[in-house]
Specification:
Elements: H1 8-49, H2 53-86, H3 96-110, H4 119-133, H5 143-149, E1 173-176, E2 182-184, H6 185-194, E3 198-200, E4 209-211, E5 215-216, H7 219-245
Antiparallel strand pairs: 1-2, 1-5, 3-4
Helix pairs in contact: 1-2, 1-4, 1-7, 2-3, 2-4
Length: about 250
Amino acid sequence: MASTSHGSGGVAARMKNAASTFCSDSQPIIADIRKTVLLMKDIAVQLEEDNLPDKVKELEDAVIELVGLSELSVQFSSAVQVFTNRYQPGEEFTNFSKLFEDELSEFKAKQSSDLPKHPLIRQFKEAVWNVHHTGQPMPGEEQEDIVMTSTQSNILNVTCPLTGKPITELVEPVRSMECRHIYEKKVIMQYLKSKQQRGQCPISGCPKILQGDKLVQDPLLLIEIDEMRKMNKETEVEDYTMLNED
């Protein structure tokens, strides 16, 4: 598949539409996988209580496979967006297949290939471990690691560093593929424009250099933000209930 600069504006527009559609189509699948993994975690806890370790291991293997599929979908969608953002039409033919494969390979190389450390898998293992070892760190982990697991997610910052707004209130949130921090798209793009399209992440202490074409709205981002929004509402209800009881 190749293209020249003739009709390049239309090509670029169609590419952006395709990237947006792919991301939107991926979200329900990823959301269903996350719900399924949570359900499997509850089943595994029951099996562990019934002392059926072989069945628990089968569920753990299935969870790892499901999370792997979810991560692959996120990687693919993100690579599509980065490729679309980076594409510059020219006079010579463009080999779309090779460019996309290069983007996907680069993206995969930067992601952690150690799925057992994924937050959902860690939560699964922690829930099973706590059936018989409540309060004890899992093998190979320090106490503080296991304490963090229950709240660990791919969301690294809860507010945009440039606007100060909670990420649950951002109009168009995007995530850096370099450092995984989240920003309001319009504001971070203005920030990068003032830095000649390359600037250090505005999160205090983050050394990563941001590039505009690597700020994407991966399909998992909106799901995680929605989960955080629901969690905040549940916390507010609990706090309100406690106040009334007092």
